[in-house]
Amino acid sequence: MKKPPMKGTQRLRVGEPEYHSLETAAPFHLEATVRLLQRRPTNRVDRWVDAGYRRAYATKDGVRLVETRNFGSIDAPDVRFAILNGSSSPATDASVAASLRRTLGLDLDSAAVQRWAERKKGLRSTALALRGFRPPRFPSLFETFGSVIPFQQLSLDAGVSIHGRLVDRFGASIVVGDNRWFAFPEAEVVAEADLEALRSVGLSRQKAETLRRLAARIASGDLKAETFAALPTHEALAALTEEPGIGPWTAAVILLRGFGRTEVFPPNDTGVARGLGALLALPPGPLAADLIDRFGKYRGYLYFYSLGAQLLGRGLIEPAPSVRSSARPPQRLP
């Protein structure tokens, strides 16, 4: 019988940090979810270290390094998080838990999309390898803008490099052990930044101006995530593209990766087109809109399967075991 998720908190060993439970429905593939969030392992904020997810958060208690691990298995998840440096208040613990639930999609039911993908000839093998992943989301509205705008009209690797320099220059940080960990920059910091300082990380003038203007609006409360969340998808896309510097591709990625609108597919994304072309055995060239539309409410999952296939090919994601072989009991720490 499957052991129910641990309730409350627990120290695994004497001297270990206190781990808090994050109840999660099975299956759940933590590594695949984090790798899809990262896009590349050089991501400066979201890091996969020693089979766990680590991220620094700027909290009211200061910068805190948080580790999230699955002490169970994909089919019997036992997901917990711990703050690895300093103490934290109950409010900070609750805020971190809520952010992790959102970012890692812990409240999503992935069973229906898994069945759908396994029925698609071109997606089946990738869907089986990624079984249990959840479409990740950026934790906040400003981080969504700051994690999409630098990638406009650039390769994924180039965008990750600029994103990393933005974090290094403007993000709060903490040293834990031998490593420095960076939190994503706060909107207030970027709103007050000198334009040339923003450009120095590799942003074009237009991108720097767009990011600073959006940061200022978010910091002042003029622009809120709730505004877009309340709109139907087509209206949210239209509202985003009314913002200077936000085109159709950027708006679609913002809704997909920031708001979990998995019915949205980013148009004219050459990297995704190449990946899907290989998966679906399509001829080279742009993806036909009618082909994407055939996937209906699961259009956005094509983006994640394309990226996931690339990451699997690079050996960055351990493929999920078959359902039969995963019946073995989870390995738990003493």
Description of the structure:
This protein has 334 residues and is of the alpha+beta class. The chain contains 15 helices and eight strands. It has helices at 30-38, 90-103, 111-118, 124-129, 141-146, 156-170, 187-191, 195-199, 205-220, 225-229, 233-241, 248-259, 270-280, 289-293, 299-313, and strands at 9-11, 18-21, 47-49, 52-59, 62-70, 79-83, 173-176, 179-182. The strands form two sheets. A six-stranded antiparallel β-sheet has the order 1-2-6-5-4-3. Mean pLDDT is 91; it is low at 1-7, 10-14 and 327-334.
Summarize the structure.
This protein has 334 residues and is of the alpha+beta class. The chain contains 15 helices and 8 strands.
Unreliable spans are 1-7, 10-14, 327-334
Strand content: 5-15%
Radius of gyration: 20 Å
Q: Roughly what is the average pLDDT, rounded to an integer?
A: 91
By DSSP, the count of extended strands is 8
Tell me the distance between the termini. 20 Å
Q: Quickly give the structural class.
A: alpha+beta
Main sheet: strands, sense, barrel:
6 strands, antiparallel
Widest sheet: strand order? 1-2-6-5-4-3
Order of helices and strands: EEHEEEEHHHHHEEHHHHHHHHH
How many helical stretches? 15
Helix content: 40-55%
Shape assignment = globular
Main traits of this protein?
disordered N terminus, 334 residues, two-stranded antiparallel ribbon, alpha+beta, disordered C terminus
Give the SSE layout.
Layout: E1 9-11, E2 18-21, H1 30-38, E3 47-49, E4 52-59, E5 62-70, E6 79-83, H2 90-103, H3 111-118, H4 124-129, H5 141-146, H6 156-170, E7 173-176, E8 179-182, H7 187-191, H8 195-199, H9 205-220, H10 225-229, H11 233-241, H12 248-259, H13 270-280, H14 289-293, H15 299-313
Antiparallel strand pairs: 1-2, 2-6, 3-4, 4-5, 5-6, 7-8
Helix pairs in contact: 11-12, 13-15
